[in-house]
Design a protein that fits this description.
The chain is mainly β. Helices cover 0% and strands 49% of the residues.
Length: 113
């Protein structure tokens, strides 16, 4: 079974940047659509961004223009570049294969005001 491992979270001031990484095990990474989701304290998990196998991208309205999803199939890794961070971006960020039940363990992002 494919496993996903996120990294790159941390504490940053409002207006700052972070880059999250999600690395997958296995040899068929290029065949997957990959997505990022987040869960704020006391809230449900929500969609953030998706990178389709075709190369197309999709973003939640709340992050458009600030976040960029990219992937490196040679490294089995999907990235989430987060700029102009806001306190409301705080949460645990998870990567996911497509719409499957395969999730990473999450990485904490905290944005201070």
């Amino acid at each position: 079974q494919v496993q996903l491992v996120e990294s790159g979270g941390g504490l940053v001031q409002a207006g700052g940047s972070l880059r999250l990484s999600c690395t997958a095990s296995g040899r068929t990474f290029g065949a997957y659509d990959m997505g990022w989701y987040r869960q704020a304290p006391g809230k449900e998990r929500e969609f953030v961004a998706r990178k389709w196998r075709s190369g197309n991208t999709e973003y939640a309205d709340s992050v458009k223009g600030r976040f960029t999803i990219s992937r490196d199939n040679g490294k089995n890794t999907v990235y989430l570049q987060m700029n102009s961070l806001k306190p409301e971006d705080t949460g645990i960020y998870y990567c996911r294969i497509g719409l499957s039940s395969v999730w990473g363990q999450g990485t904490q992002v905290t944005v201070s005001s």
